From TrEMBL:
<feature type="domain" description="Beta/gamma crystallin 'Greek key'">
    <location>
        <begin position="118"/>
        <end position="162"/>
    </location>
</feature>
<comment type="subunit">
    <text>Homo/heterodimer, or complexes of higher-order. The structure of beta-crystallin oligomers seems to be stabilized through interactions between the N-terminal arms.</text>
</comment>
<feature type="domain" description="Beta/gamma crystallin 'Greek key'">
    <location>
        <begin position="210"/>
        <end position="252"/>
    </location>
</feature>
<feature type="compositionally biased region" description="Pro residues">
    <location>
        <begin position="264"/>
        <end position="286"/>
    </location>
</feature>
<keyword id="KW-0677">Repeat</keyword>
<dbReference type="GO" id="GO:0005212">
    <property type="term" value="F:structural constituent of eye lens"/>
</dbReference>
<dbReference type="GO" id="GO:0007601">
    <property type="term" value="P:visual perception"/>
</dbReference>
<dbReference type="Pfam" id="PF00030">
    <property type="entry name" value="Crystall"/>
</dbReference>
<feature type="signal peptide">
    <location>
        <begin position="1"/>
        <end position="26"/>
    </location>
</feature>
<keyword id="KW-0273">Eye lens protein</keyword>
<comment type="similarity">
    <text>Belongs to the beta/gamma-crystallin family.</text>
</comment>
<dbReference type="InterPro" id="IPR001064">
    <property type="entry name" value="Beta/gamma_crystallin"/>
</dbReference>
<dbReference type="InterPro" id="IPR011024">
    <property type="entry name" value="G_crystallin-like"/>
</dbReference>
<feature type="region of interest" description="Disordered">
    <location>
        <begin position="260"/>
        <end position="293"/>
    </location>
</feature>
<protein>
    <recommendedName>
        <fullName>Beta-crystallin B3</fullName>
    </recommendedName>
</protein>
<feature type="domain" description="Beta/gamma crystallin 'Greek key'">
    <location>
        <begin position="168"/>
        <end position="209"/>
    </location>
</feature>
<keyword id="KW-0732">Signal</keyword>
């Protein structure tokens, strides 16, 4: 059985009937005694049931995108809450669209963030300028949870991040103008370009599908650079002071990936514990001669 809820009602649906439900074809709503509700995955579902749910979401993503465009839909919704102090304290302001200056919302500073739906890209200067920070669905109780560059703790403007495809394809070039050594990345995250035999010098980029974020250092560390679909002929086009990118990853649309964007790979399972060696068998007692005790 597969457990979902809608408007407080608990529904048990046989696994074999999942594909026949209207919301399995891209409609997340369902009629309940309390009205129209939204289907949600429950924590008590088994691992296999959750895997099936994820697979259905990913298979329906292109159809959902096409339906939104062809029917004039607004596409995925965006909502982020900014707080003046750490741990979601102090004044707060909610946003569902771009903001060139958070100070205009009576926020002197931003020290914590909750992204309810996204993704977003934030900047440390007004007018979408300066260092960039990717904000995907989740909670950010301190400034160092959305950046590890240690260069800036300001967040002064932000905008929704465009994600136009469930597929991802990226070309990186050694020199400006799409020349020199080239590497192609398709539907994958790369923690180290060095590991693929590519230099750390990236001077131009073609983002052919999907939205990407590049990092200054390996392991997704350092300054972040957003690559939405398009051509970037020079590193100045992505507001970088130097032509240096050493790791890249995909940015996921939370409408399609509700469980959360970038996930580190699962650690390798520990080797099985060997069976204990059997205790040594004691040698047999020596035989006694006849007539002797």
């Amino acid at each position: 059985m597969f457990t979902v809820t809608a408007e407080g009602c608990c529904l048990l649906i046989p696994l074999g009937s999942l594909s026949q439900c209207p919301w399995a074809a891209g409609d997340p709503t369902i009629q309940t005694p309390g009205g129209t509700g939204t289907v949600q995955l429950q924590q008590n579902n088994t691992v296999e049931e959750q895997r099936i749910w994820r697979m259905m979401e990913q298979q329906n993503a292109p159809e959902q995108l096409a339906a939104g465009k062809s029917q004039g839909g607004a596409g995925p919704s965006f909502k982020v809450v900014l707080f003046e102090f750490e741990n979601f304290q102090g004044k707060k302001a909610e946003f569902s669209s771009e903001c060139k200056d958070v100070n205009e919302k009576d926020l002197k500073k931003v020290a914590s963030v909750i992204v309810e739906s996204g993704p977003w890209v934030a900047y440390d200067r007004h007018g979408f300028k300066g260092e960039q920070f990717i904000l995907e669905k989740g909670e950010y109780p301190r400034w160092d949870t959305w950046t590890n560059s240690q260069n800036s703790h300001y967040l002064l403007s932000l905008r929704p991040l465009k994600v136009d495809s469930a597929e991802h394809k990226l070309h990186l070039f050694e020199n400006p103008g799409f020349s020199g050594q080239k590497i192609e990345v398709i539907d994958d995250d790369v923690p180290s370009l060095w590991g693929l035999g590519f230099k750390d010098r990236v001077a131009s980029v073609k983002a052919l599908n999907g939205t990407w974020v590049g990092y200054q250092y390996p392991g997704y560390r350092g300054r972040q650079f957003v690559f939405e679909r398009g051509d970037f002929k020079h590193w100045n086009d992505w507001d970088s002071p130097t032509p240096q990118i050493q790791s890249v990853r995909r940015v996921r649309d939370m409408q399609w990936h509700k469980r959360g964007c970038f996930l580190p790979p699962d650690p390798s399972p520990a080797p099985p514990v060997p069976d204990p060696e059997p205790a040594p068998v004691p040698p047999p007692a020596p035989a006694t001669k006849a007539g002797h005790p």
